[in-house]
Write a structure and sequence with these properties.
- Helices cover 54% and strands 0% of the residues.
- α1 packs antiparallel against α2.
- The two termini are 14 Å apart.
- The chain is built from three helices and no strands.
- The radius of gyration is 21 Å and the shape is elongated.
- The longest helix has 30 residues.
- By secondary structure, the protein is mainly alpha-helical.
Length: 110
């Protein structure tokens, strides 16, 4: 089995931001669009789709900005790996992640 690759990044984890935005937009946005559509006459599927886009786009945008700000302030999406100031993974076992091949510790030496 091939080892899982890990990425080292500085700042915001944009992959986490995109995934979280996607999920939250569906969880929050779908009910909001459904509730708001109850107050509007939508005669055709085209009108329904246009309404969903007009209401859903601002919900998506606000959600994306909020998630990005949250990620910036809290270092969210880093996979729970705490790094120390010297750049090590902070687990004191002496086995740091090997660069390039995604293997860790003793596996990289085998």
């Amino acid at each position: 089995m091939q080892p899982v690759e890990r990425a080292e990044f500085e700042g915001i984890d944009y992959g986490w931001v995109m995934q979280t935005t996607f999920v939250l937009t569906i969880v929050v946005g779908a009910p909001v669009v459904a509730v708001l559509s109850a107050f509007v006459t939508l005669d055709s599927w085209g009108a329904r789709a246009a309404f969903a886009v007009r209401v859903g786009a601002p919900i998506w945008f606000v959600t994306a900005v909020a998630v990005a700000l949250y990620a910036r302030r809290t270092d969210a999406g880093d996979g729970g790996v705490e790094t120390s100031e010297d750049g090590t993974d902070g687990d004191d076992d002496g086995n740091e992640t090997a660069e390039g091949d995604g293997a860790t510790g003793d596996r990289a030496r085998q």
